[in-house]
């Protein structure tokens, strides 16, 4: 690429199977990536499932204050899931061809290897368009929604992972949010050279508060699905000494909401747990700000944007020692790790944080803020721009 080419704006097509108004890490990353690229002067188009099964013309949608052109093919809802929609797989290539013909992108960046990403990858290969692929998915993220017997799940997963290898193998570069996630993908799919690139966050958006908290508030933010293991946190809270007088705020919705509400009642925690549902950005920033500690018991995180947001808010983190969470939580530094599904150990870790002297709590806060600095969205955008242009990656 010539020097003049390396500075010209690009026309970028991002393919997603989940996007706004969906609330999950993969969707949030795609939104921030698209908005950040537009802010840098690129022309960005996003192909994502429509909100209903009908054809709609491409239209500009405002994402994080930036205009992004959305192409939303007809989609249907997956009944076992509370919000997931998908394009019929046998129509994916047809819609992909139409969008690629209309956009004529310089580069395509797929956010999954499933329906839309799979269709775009075939079209990109046929047209000779450079493609970057990012993986946000683990098997645990989808097994709960197959409504098939366990043996059938295993057979389907085997077939899916074979297709993952084929689809991602078409990309010029394959990325995933963390080194552990990259190791997982390489070990599962056989793809080599996976590049870890943080999803990134805008740290200036969050408002850490170093002052002592007036009350002990535990916070979780995320989808309420089984792999998040919010039930483990509820059982841990039941074990805490009553003198700690804790309150647990749960932000997010999902298919496990009613089950968790019933469990809360069964444990007698109704007065100590609040299900806040989905809240807007301003409310979320304030909820992070007033919390004492962020707890995530999930066993299937390839990064966890919510954990990054909590770190940028200056919160100590207590996380399950699973997949990529140890990449964010340095045990004894910005918080603690605990054995997955061990609510007794989790209760002990929560107690450690909430009974620590304020100077020790502030030390963990500073460690979280330092850890979040590595994941600034500016670095993420710099790296993806280099990949799109086939240039050396920044350190």
Automatic annotation (TrEMBL):
Keywords on record: Glycosyltransferase, Transferase
BP-aspect Gene Ontology terms: carbohydrate derivative biosynthetic process
InterPro entries, per database record: Glyco_trans_1, Glyco_trans_4-like_N, Glycosyltransferase_grp1
Gene Ontology terms for molecular function: glycosyltransferase activity
Presence of keyword Glycosyltransferase: yes
Sequence ranges assigned to domain Glycosyltransferase subfamily 4-like N-terminal in this UniProt record: 23-203
Pfam families xrefs: Glyco_transf_4, Glycos_transf_1
Domain Glycosyl transferase family: 214-365
Name of the protein in question: D-inositol 3-phosphate glycosyltransferase
Species assigned in the record: Leucobacter tardus
């Amino acid at each position: 690429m010539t020097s003049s080419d390396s500075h010209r704006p690009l026309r970028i097509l991002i393919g997603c199977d989940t996007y706004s108004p969906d609330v999950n890490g993969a969707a949030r990353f795609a939104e921030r990536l698209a908005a950040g690229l537009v802010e840098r002067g690129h022309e960005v188009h996003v192909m994502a499932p429509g909100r209903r099964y009908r054809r709609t013309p491409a239209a500009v949608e405002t994402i994080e204050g930036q205009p992004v052109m959305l192409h939303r093919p007809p989609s249907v809802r997956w009944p076992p899931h509370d919000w997931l929609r998908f394009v019929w797989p046998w129509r994916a290539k047809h819609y992909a061809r139409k969008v690629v013909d209309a956009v004529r992108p310089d580069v395509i960046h797929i956010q999954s290897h499933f329906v839309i990403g799979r269709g775009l990858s075939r079209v990109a290969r046929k047209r000779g368009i450079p493609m970057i692929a990012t993986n946000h998915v683990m098997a645990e993220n989808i097994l709960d929604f197959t409504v098939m017997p366990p043996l059938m799940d295993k057979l389907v997963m085997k077939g899916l992972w074979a297709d993952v290898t084929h689809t991602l193998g078409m990309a010029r570069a394959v990325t995933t949010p963390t080194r552990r996630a990259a190791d997982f993908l390489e070990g599962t799919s056989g793809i080599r050279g996976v590049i870890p690139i943080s999803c990134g966050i805008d740290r200036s958006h969050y408002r850490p508060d170093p002052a002592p908290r007036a009350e002990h508030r535990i916070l979780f933010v995320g989808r309420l699905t089984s792999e998040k293991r919010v039930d483990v946190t509820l059982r841990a809270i039941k074990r805490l000494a009553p003198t700690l007088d804790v309150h647990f705020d749960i932000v997010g919705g999902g298919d496990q909401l009613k089950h968790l509400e019933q469990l809360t009642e069964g444990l007698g925690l109704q007065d100590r747990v609040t299900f806040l549902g989905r809240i807007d950005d301003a409310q979320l920033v304030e909820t992070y700000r007033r919390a004492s500690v962020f707890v995530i018991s999930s066993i299937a995180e390839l990064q966890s944007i919510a954990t990054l947001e909590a770190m940028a808010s200056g919160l100590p983190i207590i996380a399950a020692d699973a997949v990529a969470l140890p990449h964010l939580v340095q045990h004894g530094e910005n918080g603690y790790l605990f054995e997955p599904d061990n609510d007794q150990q989790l209760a002990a870790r929560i107690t450690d944080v909430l009974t620590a002297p304020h100077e020790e709590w502030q030390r963990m806060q500073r460690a979280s803020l330092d850890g979040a600095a590595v994941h600034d969205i500016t670095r993420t955008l710099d790296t993806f721009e280099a990949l799109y242009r086939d240039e050396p990656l920044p350190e």
